[in-house]
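Ticket opened by: R.M.
Priority: normal
Category: complex prediction / small molecule

The reporter submitted a protein together with protoporphyrin IX containing FE and asked that the result be attached to this ticket for the collaborator who will pick it up next week. Submitted input follows.
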Amino acid sequence: MAIFFVLVCSLIFVAIASYVHYARRRQGEGQGGGYGGGHAKAASPKLPPGSMGWPYLGETLQLYSQDPNVFFASRQKRYGEIFKTHLLGCPCVMLASPEAARFVLVTHAHLFKPTYPRSKERMIGPSALFFHQGEYHLRLRRLVQGALGPDALRALVPEVDAAVRSTLAAWDGRVMSTFHAMKRLSFDVGIVTIFGGRLDERRKAELRRNYSVVEKGYNCFPNSLPGTLYHKAMQARRRLHGALSDIMRERRERGEPGSDLLGCLMQSRGDDGAPLLTDEQVADNIIGVLFAAQDTTASVLTWIIKFLRDHPKLLEAVRAEQAAVREATGGGRRPLTWAHARSMALTHRVILESLRMASIISFTFREAVADVEYKGFLIPKGWKVMPLFRNIHHNPDYFQDPHKFDPCRFQVAPRPNTFLPFGSGVHACPGNELAKLEMLVLIHHLVTGYRWEIVGSSDEVEYSPFPVPKHGLPVRLWRENRTADRKGGSESDDVEDMIVSHSN
Ligand code: HEM
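Result attached by the on-call engineer:
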């Protein structure tokens, strides 16, 4: 017993001593070094307030033992809009103010590089644009943005329309996990965006099969032992790569590289006229776009379906707006067009409010490439820096009554840098318009053609990896009886009021 007691005391002593040593060392680092940029330099910038937790462990256990949003919100309450912590072996500075997010992502972006765990870079592909900065990133970004720009999207509307119709038809009369149905849809939309609707079903099935193994390994412990999810995912990644190389070779042999995203990447040329990207780099970026497009869009679509169900009057108002659009498509006989999608004012606000409420990307990561001073605080070189989007989106100073789902708030544009669902600056999401288009089209067909009910409770949240309602929101969906509805005259005066107020 005595030996046990001595052992426990020694352990506690070692932990405290190393913590004190560690804290001093960090404080020491805080006093020295040059500054990469920032506001007026204070005499001796200090580290931001906050707790670095236990040596080595930091506050990782606290983060993982509770809702991550509660973890960040409680620290913001205690320390303010800039605070330090230590997570997953890395010292971090958290930034919960719009100005700080702008500083890191826009005005001083060159001082903060993107940072991802090495295992995740290997899984997606090290040449994918989100891992890079500088010239290579800039050139790639222009290509990706071009392939996702307004002209390309206009041409994609019929394809997105067809993908949505087919997803809903497959769901008709069944209970399905909304998240899974939406993942399938987002994958299909990703495929038509990348391959321009020219991919045969066999190839598509091959890509889908391998991609689903890759994503299962993405959030696993990176263990390369045969049989582990990570190992299987890396093997599937190689097969994906092989399939993409075959598609590129076939296009070259036919002399038709195409004007879709794949074609744009394949045909890109540097200033000297030589190909800008190798096939390997193209494949990394294609896998990267699929990855960036799928779970993000599917999670938001899942929340939209829940929010609409939870707010029946709003749903009726959206239904009325979409009924008018349906008339314009000859009662659904013609596909939607870009102009139709641009005319959905209330539906667009529902999407913005869903993006704010769900804030599925709660924060992003950067790493300081030099000692940086911000508002008198030091962000030491090598520290992770995390702009906290969700904290900003849920701050009552910027969004009154932030926990209320209220699309009306978007009748007025949010204050600058307070609404960042797609990030900001050089790495801001180039797929944001495509994602919104997909949501508009889905809502159109859902509310004009179907009814749905949530099966079981939808109040708990799970992370897969983005937050979604528990079990992916199981929903029973069925085609509506249009005749009965029209006769029923379900639009009340309240609903008409809502349409008027939302359309202003
Ligand atoms: C609701 C859906 C989506 C959300 C919420 C979302 C959110 C974001 C955010 C926050 C970033 C910036 C990350 C950072 O700064 O570290 C980002 C980057 C990116 N997103 Fe999205 N995204 C969505 C859909 C899409 C789609 C549909 C595509 C492509 C078809 C896409 C492609 C990308 C790419 C390629 C980047 C990296 C850009 C760069 O590093 O320059 N995203 N996204």
